[in-house]
Amino acid sequence: MNRESFARYSRIGGPIVVHTNTEQMVALAINSPLTTIASDAYWQNGTGHPRTTGTYAKVLGYYVRETRSLSMMEAISKMTLMPAQRLEARVPMMRQKGRLAVGADADITIFDPATVMDRSTYREPSLPPGRDSARDRERHIGGYERSASRWCHAGQAGARTDPP
After folding, report:
1. Which of 3, 90, 114, 127 is deepest in the core (most CB within 10 A)?
2. Residue 141 above 80 pLDDT?
């Protein structure tokens, strides 16, 4: 990007994404015992960065299943318990997050470890994780269910229904 292209894109509006990390840098960071996994992505007017929908699916599909650089338990801890623990000192309610325990606030995501994968792109950032958009289901018990037809809000019961 140069001064001219920056001015042109600034007039159009929207985000500018600069890729500075190599895959090797990301892999080193992801595998560090000090690293928690979360996303600082945004969502505005129905669009946003692919990290918004793809962060956790990428970790599970790529770093756990494909490269095997993380175990499933390491990945889940990095995405749930570790971020909650990092924030506990400043945000006491985080002591009730990121863990399965009586009295804890838990959003449970059910996924198939054999097929979960990040499909979101810059052109289609809202693609749900999975292998086939017509068949994918993402269930967050106590959170949201995303299917091809609806979002289900916290507290609503729902049974899995496989597509015909």
Report:
1. 127
2. no
Report pLDDT for 62.
93
pLDDT, tens digit, 9 for 90 and up, residues 17-55: 777 889 999 999 999 999 999 887 777 777 778 888 888
Predicted confidence at residue 100, as pLDDT, reads 87
Q: In this structure, is residue 159 part of a structural domain?
A: no
Residue 161 lies in a domain: no
Is there a domain that residue 122 lies in? yes
Q: What is the maximal distance between C-alpha atoms in the chain?
A: 57
DSSP 92: G
- Has residue 160 been placed in a domain? no
Helix ranges restricted to H, the chain: 3-12, 23-31, 51-58, 72-79, 81-87
Overall number of domains in the chain: 1
| 105 vs 99: CA distance, rounded Å | 8
How far apart are the C-alpha atoms of 85 and 94, rounded to whole Å?
7
What is d(CA 43, CA 129) in angstroms, rounded to the nearest whole number? 16
Question: Which residue range(s) make up the domain with 25?
Answer: 20-152
